[in-house]
Design a protein that fits this description.
Shape: elongated
Strand content: 35-45%
Oligomer: single chain
Radius of gyration: 17 Å
Number of strands: 7
Distance between the termini: 30 Å
Number of helices: 3
Largest sheet: 5 strands, mixed
Order of helices and strands: HEEEEEEEHH
Length: 134
Amino acid sequence: MRLATLVPWLVGLRLHRLVVEQNQLILVLHPIRRTARCPVCQRRSARIHSSYERSIVDLPMGDRPIRLRLTVRRFRCVNRECSRRIFAERFPHLAPVYGRRTHAQRMALVDFGLELGGSAGARLAARRGVVGGR
């Protein structure tokens, strides 16, 4: 069974390791694609420059918060005319470009806030494990 079947917003990612800690679950993820598209000129590149790890908070599973540790690769743009020489691959289906929360978790927080109001929504979100610290 593919990971994206259970968690649709993780499409295009492979579960490398699952770390079970006392207070949270950490999913270590790697991208499946071998290439990435330059955000400026839209050309695909397979020339990897470097990589880094990005941490994103996701919806809880049961009573445990989920943290995604995502390996993000930096690529060299192959278009000599492009103004962007090096770019990081993006995961628009998962989180905003500089986001620290998945779209799913952000929407859950918005729903709590809109339905219950500020303080009550924050308390319920914390009790349900939707609010995760960095």
